């Protein structure tokens, strides 16, 4: 993302934002079922898993271990702060960390809502970059066509050097485009997996209920 001033964590949470957040979290399959957001996210592990589901290259899950001690919880959140949140242009302060590790009401929700907003912003920037790359590639093709016409008419341009330069530029553009497309693909694959798991779970629950009903 762009190197702007870091975004501050939201200070207040509206009820509609809270409802949207809970619905959004239900789209993900994490290692633990979320029963109490404040308590379940207090050690930072589920936060790391959530980031990994949305942005696989942003987090290394082995850096985060389940914890009951306040110190280990602080370590996990400080690691997220330095290695993940900064890359999304936001950072949580010590007060936020203390609220989270002590399972204070709305402590982690403020961070989750901020993360959600910054995630969508990041995804939109990736899409814009992809569109810009397509536009640049089209312009390069048009410029190449114009240059070839001029070269043919005036015979003042070394065609061989011009072609090599153009090819190098296209290769650079394609490499960059592939890199960004890989990001988008991983995000979409993870979202699709989460949706599929959720759907299969509902189908399984329906099937089990039908079996129980038949037995009775």
UniProtKB/TrEMBL annotation:
<protein>
    <recommendedName>
        <fullName>Calponin-homology (CH) domain-containing protein</fullName>
    </recommendedName>
</protein>
<feature type="domain" description="Calponin-homology (CH)">
    <location>
        <begin position="15"/>
        <end position="124"/>
    </location>
</feature>
<dbReference type="GO" id="GO:0051493">
    <property type="term" value="P:regulation of cytoskeleton organization"/>
</dbReference>
<dbReference type="GO" id="GO:0005930">
    <property type="term" value="C:axoneme"/>
</dbReference>
<dbReference type="Pfam" id="PF06294">
    <property type="entry name" value="CH_2"/>
</dbReference>
<dbReference type="InterPro" id="IPR001715">
    <property type="entry name" value="CH_dom"/>
</dbReference>
<feature type="region of interest" description="Disordered">
    <location>
        <begin position="131"/>
        <end position="161"/>
    </location>
</feature>
<dbReference type="InterPro" id="IPR010441">
    <property type="entry name" value="CH_2"/>
</dbReference>
<dbReference type="InterPro" id="IPR036872">
    <property type="entry name" value="CH_dom_sf"/>
</dbReference>
<dbReference type="GO" id="GO:0008017">
    <property type="term" value="F:microtubule binding"/>
</dbReference>
<feature type="compositionally biased region" description="Polar residues">
    <location>
        <begin position="150"/>
        <end position="161"/>
    </location>
</feature>
<dbReference type="InterPro" id="IPR052111">
    <property type="entry name" value="Spermatogenesis_Ciliary_MAP"/>
</dbReference>
């Amino acid at each position: 993302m762009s190197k702007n001033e870091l975004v501050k964590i939201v200070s207040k949470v509206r009820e509609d934002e809270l409802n949207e957040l809970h619905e959004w979290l239900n789209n993900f399959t994490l290692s633990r079922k979320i029963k109490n957001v404040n308590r379940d996210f207090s050690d930072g592990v589920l936060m790391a898993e959530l980031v990994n589901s949305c942005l696989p290259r942003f987090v290394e899950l082995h850096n985060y271990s389940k914890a009951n001690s306040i110190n280990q919880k602080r370590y996990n959140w400080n690691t997220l702060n330095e290695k993940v949140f900064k890359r999304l242009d936001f950072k949580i302060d010590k007060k936020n960390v203390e609220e989270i590790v002590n399972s204070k009401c709305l402590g982690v929700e403020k961070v989750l809502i901020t993360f959600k907003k910054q995630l969508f912003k990041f995804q939109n920037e990736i899409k814009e970059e992809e569109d810009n790359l397509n536009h640049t590639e089209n312009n390069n093709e048009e410029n190449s066509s114009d240059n070839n016409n001029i070269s043919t008419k005036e015979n003042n341009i070394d065609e061989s050097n011009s072609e090599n330069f153009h090819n190098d530029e296209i290769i650079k553009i394609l490499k960059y485009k592939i890199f960004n497309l890989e990001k988008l693909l991983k995000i979409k694959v993870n979202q699709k997996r989460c949706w599929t798991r959720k759907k299969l779970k509902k189908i399984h629950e329906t099937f089990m209920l039908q079996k129980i009903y038949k037995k009775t």
